[in-house]
Design goal:
The chain has 276 residues and is an alpha/beta fold. The protein has helices at 9-24, 38-50, 67-72, 97-111, 126-141, 158-169, 184-196, 230-246, and strands at 2-3, 32-33, 56-58, 78-81, 91-95, 116-120, 151-153, 178-181, 206-210, 224-227, 257-260, 263-265.
């Protein structure tokens, strides 16, 4: 299993589920972390290929030159997870990312927010572009202006989510009344920024994010999230991979896209905007 950031709680939970389903089928899971580095990803895939592993669940991390050819040329079956890679025909398991950000955006709009700051993932990545699309499309469908000044890149990292929230919440005028972070670690970074600025959440600003956060039951406020069905996604990824590993002719099996719906879980971090 090759992931881009094993420190992210989402991937820690995913690994637990992948390992459980793989071991039930008598397979051992080897974990590799690319740290979001395209060079690391290429080296890791080459090494795993040389070690003749049975198959790979891969979360591709970027679009380096020759990435599609390198991945598509792997000597063993593989399933792409979370991120899609342009130019590759393969099995894929992921969440409806457009829907994830759309349902959170709609929730904030229904509460009365029209100044919504968006902290997005790494520009160019499949999930980041899909989540951005869900936000923008929902804003426009609700006839709420999309202000580019309120849309910042948090690079799927807590520290960058913190910096983005700092910029948004220290705007000289007309700052956002709500923040939407495209990942759990960016949402936590945004919450830390609000705490450091003595900006009360949700009294002064509402906050929502995609994916659950660690210790969500004890963090106050509990963040409103769009949660991915990790267990079902892990089961699907292992099922597709094992089908190809055991097939007499893997190439004869049609590739499948398995897209699962996220679930909106309301916390205590969102409320109607305050009237000053």
């Amino acid at each position: 299993m090759v992931l881009s950031d094993v420190t992210n709680p989402f991937f820690g939970n995913l690994l637990h589920q992948i390992e459980r389903f793989a071991m039930a089928a008598d397979y051992l899971v080897i974990l590799s972390d690319t740290a979001g580095s395209e060079a690391n990803e290429k080296a890791i895939l080459t090494h795993l290929s040389n070690q003749l592993v049975s198959g790979i669940v891969l979360q591709p991390c970027g679009h380096y030159r020759g990435a599609a050819d390198h991945i598509a040329g792997l000597a063993m079956p593989f399933v792409l997870f979370d991120h899609k890679q342009t130019g590759i025909s393969s099995d894929y398991v992921g969440t409806d990312n457009v829907l994830a950000s759309a349902m959170l955006t709609e929730h904030l709009i229904r509460l009365g927010h029209t100044r919504i700051g968006y902290i997005g993932g790494t520009a160019g990545l499949y999930t980041a572009e899909q989540r951005r699309q869900g936000f923008v499309d929902t804003m426009r469908a609700s006839h709420v202006p999309v202000d580019p000044a309120l849309m910042l890149d948090g690079r799927y990292a807590g520290e960058h989510g913190y910096e983005a929230a700092m910029r948004l919440m220290t705007m000289a005028a007309d700052r956002p009344t709500a923040l939407l972070a495209a990942s759990n670690v960016m949402a936590l970074g945004a919450l830390q920024a609000c705490n450091d600025l003595s900006v009360a959440c949700p009294d002064d600003v509402s906050l929502a994010g995609i994916d659950d956060v660690p210790w969500s039951a004890v963090i106050r406020p509990r963040i409103t999230i769009a949660a991915q069905p990790v267990q079902d996604m892990a089961r699907a990824a292992i099922g597709l991979l094992l089908a190809r590993i055991s097939a007499a002719d893997p190439a004869a099996i049609p590739f499948q896209d398995v897209i699962m719906a996220p679930k909106l879980i309301l916390g205590t971090s969102t409320r109607p905007p305050s009237v000053h």
